[in-house]
Amino acid sequence: xxxxxxxxxxxxxxxxxxxxxxxxxxxxxxxxxxxxxxxxxxxxxxxxxxxxxxxxxxxxxxxxxxxxxxxxxxxxxxxxxxxxxxxxxxxxxxxxxxxxxxxxxxxxxxxxxxxxxxxxxxxxxxxxxxxxxxxxxxxxxxxxxxxxxxxxxxxxxxxxxxxxxxxxxxxxxxxxxxxxxxxxxxxxxxxxxxxxxxxxxxxxxxxxxxxxxxxxxxxxxxxxxxxxxxxxxxxxxxxxxxxxxxxxxxxxxxxxxxxxxxxxxxxxxxxxxxxxxxxxxxxxxxxxxxxxxxxxxxxxxxxxxxxxxxxxxxxxxxxxx
Length: 321
Prior knowledge:
With about 325 residues, this protein is mostly helical. The chain is about 80% helix and about 5% strand. It has a three-stranded mixed β-sheet with strand order 2-1-3. Helix 4 (about 90-125) runs antiparallel to helix 6 (about 135-160), helix 4 (about 90-125) packs antiparallel against helix 9 (about 230-260) and helix 8 (about 190-225) runs antiparallel to helix 9. The radius of gyration is 22 Å and the shape is globular. The model is unreliable at about 1-5 (pLDDT under 50).
């Protein structure tokens, strides 16, 4: 396998060489993946079918769920397959695509979270101008910018990372093609371009984080001036879940990408990689829908017998045409 990876691909070490632990890992990842798939598809379905949720906040939430769905699909299915087949080999082409989509979707997620925080700021601090500022055209342009920016970031990282000469065996101590782990394989002083791209990406993420923090400072200062406790509770129920998601995702990713590289991979390193690759896409649907009455009402409406009958009759009319 070492000879094979030195020519045409990489060897992902994963979590363990023990066969029983590999099966356990595959089952846990499969359950987690199905939960993330179900939760994010539900949010996409509800925000699409329920016309009461056709507002900027839920429009951005739908795209966040789509990003989460794609993000977890980049790494987890491949890891499940490797564990079940007891084979950690990944081809060069697969690794390039994995790095591109992973960086692109992660960057897009940071960008959409920034847009969502700005949307909440305008809704709470400038309510009279909200419909003018967050009009449908502006929302569409913001989402397009999010996806394009993420794609450019992924393209830069993939192009630079795979142009670096590698020394030694191509063994990656992760369950996916992780950029920091791949840089350990680079020949000395040959990855200055990747460091420059990573510094640019980090600076952009820091600007996004600063924008989010400033937005929430203004939001909370405005909320504290609301005389009604019911009004404050309603605002906190929509803002706190978003703030938790931002903090969790960026802190885990920041720890992984900014810490000094080590020669050996520890269980803590693998745990932190799970914190920003697997847990956020799985928990986001729960966080955003658990305390959101509009989302729960939309789910009840879609699952109701009357709504199901109405949709069925609508489809019959369409097929007859």
